[in-house]
Amino acid sequence: MEIIPVIDIKGAVVVRARMGRRDQYRPIETPLSSTSDPVDVARGLLSVYPFTTLYVADLDAIEDTGDNRAALARLNAACPGLTLWIDNGIAERHAAERFLDAGLGHLVFGSETQGGDALLRLYAQDRRVALSLDFSGDRFQGPPAILAEPALWPADVIVMTLARVGSGAGPDLDRLAAVRRLCGDRLVYAAGGVRHVDDLAALNRCGVAGALVASALHDGRLTRAEIEAL
């Protein structure tokens, strides 16, 4: 089971995410880093464990208020052994092509920013692409066609439960199990609600391939020894 740390970038700094309420996100304060600079925070996370993948949400790009391409380029250069999974709100073919050609990392199509299923039809077989199925409460965020056609999903599928991000509520095991039944041999990753190693054990039993984690790493509730045991 793979543990993937998460950073959310807004205004060129890492912010602390909580329950999808992006207007309330503030620069992160963490014992892992003396600043909220993305490179410093990433290095702090790598001090916990030598992760091979980092999930990055460019919130300015997702909200169409700007972007953090410069920060992403610095991250990519500073952590060459780390594969970035980047959700930056891309929902158009030429933008996806430009991003993938730039070689900054893998591209995450967040369902909440998609206007339809066209991009998934183009990139379903591309291993540089992942899909995030975004949920707010019980409601799917995105075009219904995406959720209705698992055949369009790429090899890596994230189940993002926004209301559980930073909430301490635990992962949404029922929804993850439901998505897994639709996925065939695709890999499913849980995002939102992981509190400690017991949650990861429950996810492991559920059959997910990995979990996206932030608060539990910053707060010290998930340790290197526990990650190694997984």
Describe this structure in words.
- By secondary structure, the chain is α/β, with parallel strands linked by helices.
- The chain has a single domain, classed as Alpha-Beta Barrel (TIM Barrel).
- It is 33% helix and 25% strand.
- The protein has helices spanning 38-48, 59-62, 69-78, 93-102, 118-123, 144-148, 173-183, 197-206, 215-218, 224-229, and strands at residues 2-10, 13-16, 26-27, 53-58, 83-87, 106-110, 129-136, 139-141, 156-161, 187-191, 210-213.
- The termini are close together.
Task: Give the gist of this structure.
This protein has 230 residues and is α/β, with parallel strands linked by helices. It has helices at 38-48, 59-62, 69-78, 93-102, 118-123, 144-148, 173-183, 197-206, 215-218, 224-229, and strands spanning 2-10, 13-16, 26-27, 53-58, 83-87, 106-110, 129-136, 139-141, 156-161, 187-191, 210-213.
CATH topology: TIM Barrel
As a whole number of angstroms, the C-alpha radius of gyration is: 16 Å
Identify low-pLDDT runs: none
Number of domains: 1
Query: What is the count of helical runs?
Result: 10
Which word captures the global form? globular
Q: What structural class do helix, strand and pairing data support?
A: alpha/beta
The number of strands is 11
Q: Name the CATH homologous superfamily.
A: Aldolase class I
SSE order in H/E notation? EEEHEHHEHEHEEHEHEHEHH
Estimate the strand proportion.
Answer: 15-25%
What is the annotated CATH architecture?
Alpha-Beta Barrel
Spatial order of strands in the largest sheet: 1-4-5-6-7-9-10-11
Q: Main beta sheet, described?
A: 8 strands, parallel, barrel
Mean pLDDT across residues: 92
Termini separation comes to 6 Å
Using the coordinates above, name the CATH class.
Alpha Beta
